[in-house]
User: What shape does this take?
Amino acid sequence: MTVAAAPARFTGRTALLTAAASGIGAATARRLAAEGASVLVTDVDGEGAHRVADELRAEGRQARDLPLDVTSPTEWAAAVAEAESWTGRLDVLHLNAGRNLPGAAHELDDAAWHDQLRLSLDSVFYGVRAAVPLLRTARGAVVITSSVHAAVGFKGFPAYAAAKGGIDALVRQLAVEYGGQIRFNAVLPGAVVTALWAGASEEYKAQTAARAPVGRLGAPEDIAAAVAFLASGDASFITGQNLLVDGGRSISSQE
Ligand SMILES: NC(=O)c1ccc[n+]([C@@H]2O[C@H](COP(=O)([O-])OP(=O)(O)OC[C@H]3O[C@@H](n4cnc5c(N)ncnc54)[C@H](O)[C@@H]3O)[C@@H](O)[C@H]2O)c1
Assistant: This one.
């Protein structure tokens, strides 16, 4: 999807995005690139990341791609080194990897619990640890993709809620720790139609849309717009926040 003309808030800036081969990450790569950023598109699916970067290059944007499994500290070091060797800087880090592994607490085995936390929470720590030196120099911003599950309980997703809930506290901690140097915020998407929703029936989608006061499901571009805002100078007085981007789902009593 081509992004409409947008203010060039990221000209001369470099952004590294994770899990950006599809869905919210790809939409954010397109948005930041359209606003002038040099984007380093990464994903564990290296071919998918390559496709997104290729599409951006074909539109005349500045883009590179790299395979990055966010659960690997070694790969994190290589990704940050790639950003540094490419443009010499890192201004924006979008930590977006995640997947909701279902299972009520009494059904969940140790491996599933740890897989969920490793992918959605440990990875945030690895990414921040690797990128802090460059982000400090650039006075950069980090935006983490959390979930409405951090704010509201949904049956069957305790590990996902715990991982995303950990992000809620971590952004405040990091914002205090690196205040004045790096801003940290999270977006909490509601129901957003991406590959995560591939198995959902039309009936379930319609029910879910009806539960949100805005009356529709989200698009990846809805989340990308919020990430771009929080990463930009427009949000220079905002740090340590968890922003719900859920069409109002979490403030509605509708079942
Ligand atoms: N779609 C929704 O309804 C929704 C709602 C709330 C939160 N989220 C969150 O949004 C984020 C993005 O999800 P999406 O809906 O765009 O999903 P998506 O399935 O479209 O994209 C997920 C991407 O993550 C990549 N990935 C998986 N494991 C990885 C790893 N170890 N390292 C690097 N990349 C990896 C996949 O290859 C894929 O490209 C996730 O953190 C998810 O929890 C999504």
User: Anything to note?
Assistant: Helices lie at 23-34, 46-58, 73-87, 110-138, 158-177, 202-211, 220-231. The domain at 14-245 is CATH 3.40.50.720 (Rossmann fold). The mean pLDDT is 95. The pocket of nicotinamide-adenine-dinucleotide is lined by residues 18-19, 21-25, 43-45, 48, 68-71, 96-100, 119, 145, 147, 189, 191-192, 194-196 (CB under 6 Å).
